[in-house]
Amino acid sequence: MRVRPATFAAAAGAALFLLAAPAASAAPTATETLTVDRTGRIASDGTITLSGTYRCTAGTGPVYVSSSVSQNSGVLSYGIGGTKAVCDGEEHRWVNTGRPAAADALRPGTAHVEATLLEMRPEGIAVKPAFHAIQRQEITLVRG
């Protein structure tokens, strides 16, 4: 079958027009946020409890709220638990607990917390971390 030049030109022009046309914009997504409460707790056994709120939208992989805390020099940071996030655009509370290897590593007083809202996005046979939000904040650790 022979294609007529005019028909071919019209089809090619239509294809180029569709490719060049602006794509329909997606519905706006809720803002992703992460907060850290101003006070953290140290239990008698050295267990640290940190908390706050988060809001995220669905991703392609599981999403977690992780946290770490440091004091004084800030050179040594201790991971404090992780919470699986529900990414439905609503605000949720998170609470992470953990105990540094040395029970007396952290003391009541000023501390620096870094919390992350992290998605483990599948990519082929591996997973790739994708940050949704990061919050760095000074808090006060108290006994209790």
UniProtKB/TrEMBL annotation:
Residues 1-26 form the signal peptide. Residues 31-143 form the DUF6299 domain. The keyword Signal applies. Keywords: Signal. It comes from the Bacteria. It holds the Pfam family DUF6299. It comes from Streptomyces viridiviolaceus. This is DUF6299 family protein.
